Amino acid sequence: MGKQVLVIAGPTGSGESTITKEIIKKFPIFTRLVTATTREPRLNEKDKKDYYFFSEEDFKKEVTRGSIIEHTFVPGRSVYYGTYKPDLDDKLEKGFNIIVNPDVVGARYYKEHYNATTIFVKTESIGILKERLVKRDSSISKEELDRRLEAAKYELDNEENFYDHVVINTEGKLEEAVDEVVEILKRENYKLS
């Protein structure tokens, strides 16, 4: 039996979401898990498509009810993120391979409970990561940028070694990073069609 859950994670701006989209485009058997969160929807984000949006009170009720099976709190932003089990179960029952983009807490959960392969995506340097974050949001405050870079340094120093594979998403060479992930999927026995 092939694996059905794949973790692609990494510091914000490393390209984990872009690589996820490319894998789904290449292999329609893959889909993305829709994460539950307490943060406010951003422009054009849709409930149940981009995220499951909950108030903090409702999020905690879903945790108690067992519908959110793993979660994390981001203190700097006072926001919860977690796995909404009904979405996960529905996609597994339909035969999809599911890509999850969690933090290390979620990655550990999926590795332990779903035999997931875990891939850590990073840029070739913190300088490149900084450039990407600024390019992505030119109005980002210095405080927010510093906070994200600090978080990225922490992930690189303390969490990268937990993952099964590390993929460097070199600037301008996205296709190479995607190809490397595809090779990992083949080696790890994921169904691709």
**Second CATH tier, the architecture:** 3-Layer(aba) Sandwich
Look up the CATH topology.
Rossmann fold
Strand segment tally: 9
Beta-strand percent range? 15-25%
Describe the fold and architecture:
This protein has 193 residues and is of the alpha/beta class. The protein has a single domain (5-187), classed as 3-Layer(aba) Sandwich (Rossmann fold), CATH 3.40.50. 43% of the residues lie in helices and 21% in strands. The protein contains 7 helices and 9 strands, in the order E-H-E-E-E-H-E-E-H-E-H-E-H-H-E-H. It has helices at 16-26, 56-65, 85-93, 104-114, 126-136, 142-158, 174-187; strands spanning 5-9, 30-32, 35-37, 52-53, 68-74, 79-84, 97-100, 117-122, 165-168. The strands form 2 sheets. The chain has a 5-stranded parallel beta sheet with strand order 2-7-1-8-9, with helices on both faces. It has a 4-stranded mixed beta sheet with strand order 4-3-6-5, with helices on both faces. Strand 5 (68-74) and strand 6 (79-84) form a beta hairpin. The radius of gyration is 16 Å and the shape is globular. The chain starts with a strand and ends in a 6-residue tail after the last helix.
Q: Any key phrases for this structure?
A:
193 residues; alpha/beta; Rossmann fold; five-stranded parallel sheet; 7 helices; 43% helix; globular
